[in-house]
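User: I'm writing a tutorial on reading structure tokens. Could you give me a worked example: one chain, its sequence, then its tokens, then a sentence or two explaining what the tokens reveal?
Assistant: Sure. Here is the example chain.
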Amino acid sequence: MKLVVLSRSRSIPSTRRLAEAAKARGHQVRVIGPTDLEVHLDGKRTRLLHRRKAFAIPQVVIPRIAASIASYGLPILEQFSMRGALVMNSARAIGQSRNPARCLQLLAGQGLEVPSTVFARNVGDLKSMVGLLGGVPVLVKLLAGSERRGLMVCESEQSLEAALEAVLGLGHNIVLQEYVRRASRDVRVFVVGGRALAAVQRTARAGRLSRSLSRHGRIEACELSEPVRAAAEKAARLCELEVCAVDLLELKKGVKIFEVNASPALPDMEAATGIDLATPIIERAEALLRHPPRATP
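And here are its predicted structure tokens:
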């Protein structure tokens, strides 16, 4: 099959792994940045262009669109879909998963447990809001933020007040979320085609509070308990994501999901688990080409 990885550079480790896996299975692979493409609309037709020339539509597109260019990259991805390409994660699904409020609304509304969360524009009664979350520390997330840039941990009401003053002063909307201290495990589950393939446990460095796979901690492979597997697979299905990582907290009684990542990094999880995670993504694309999913009305 002809496949495009929509990514700003082939040198990005996850992009490189996907290209390698596709080539190993005999497919034609092209890596192209979303910002290198243009859309031409004139009411009669829509065209996807590269350097003002028509861009050949591939059979499959695997999006690796950075949050910083999502406002441009997601319409480009949608154009591929409109022109008949099989898209591994739709623009709508990616956009929804990257909005913490909308994503958690969806999951909680369908019966999945999430950490206690408050999102509001007016935070004048800060103590009441913190009280709803069980007190400090709390997580502060930007509604339009990426995993790395849109997350802060505030360990006191004073630091939270200062953070909110700065963030809201810049016009950002935020989500406040409880920081669950008594979790048995902080787990990331990698899901492809609705099936959980691997999981890693995250351990924060001494003296650090963290909710990020890539900072302030170490990761190691862990077994997938049935509650964790079921929660991760249901979250991926509800978010309509073919490829994602589900971040959750495994408690003594139950599981709480706090984030769904539509563009999870591959190399770190592959190194920790010893599992090839790139090839199953290509295999899923092959399966979807053979048996296309029914269009949702």
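What the tokens reveal: The two ends are 27 Å apart (CA to CA). Residues 167 and 177 are 16 Å apart (CA to CA).
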